[in-house]
Design goal:
By secondary structure, this protein is mainly α. The chain contains seven helices and no strands. Helix content is 67%, strand content 0%. The chain is elongated, with a radius of gyration of 27 Å. The chain has a domain at 38-148.
Length: 162
């Protein structure tokens, strides 16, 4: 009497089912892990963003760096402002690196819009021109393209006596 193929090879079939099941389980687990890491990176980036910009509330004088019509000849850059803006540039660079990797929840276009408006402000533009050589050429090109797409701000109104 002949024994069926399944009966004589049941252990091989069971191994094959186990391997396929293990691969499917691994794929599902990797997908969930990737989603969790994206969320964790977003939360980390948000925390760093909030921590960095909270300096403006703790040190109100830093708010001058965001003045759109500040004349640096009349009001030169202060050392604290320079250090703060160097941190902001590093923050933009980190955000750009994460967006480039494809693991960011903040799209590269949103970051480019933000960078464009930020680096057209007089004080950030002055600091950027000094620190630009210390950054990757690709990041420099990203910032320069972003700045090039921004609509210029209107000039500050001139007070007249009368």
């Amino acid at each position: 009497m002949e024994v069926g193929w399944w009966w004589s090879h049941w252990h091989e079939a069971l191994e094959a089912v186990g391997i396929v099941g293990g691969l499917l389980f691994t794929g599902v687990t990797l997908r969930h892990d990737l989603q969790a890491r994206k969320i964790a990176e977003y939360l980390t980036q948000s925390t760093e963003h909030r921590r960095l910009w909270s300096h403006l509330q703790r040190r109100p004088g830093l708010g001058r760096v965001l003045e759109p019509h500040r004349d640096l000849n009349q009001e030169p850059l202060r050392p604290g402002e320079r250090r703060f803006l160097e941190l902001v540039v590093t923050h933009f660079h980190t955000g750009w690196l994460i967006a480039q990797s494809g693991h960011s929840l903040v799209p590269l276009g949103v970051l480019a819009t933000d960078a464009g408006y930020f680096f057209t402000l007089p004080v950030p533009a002055a600091v950027w021109s000094e620190v630009r050589p210390m950054h990757q050429p690709e990041f420099v090109a990203f910032v320069e393209r972003a700045v090039g797409t921004v609509t210029p701000r209107p000039a500050a109104p001139v007070a007249t006596k009368g």
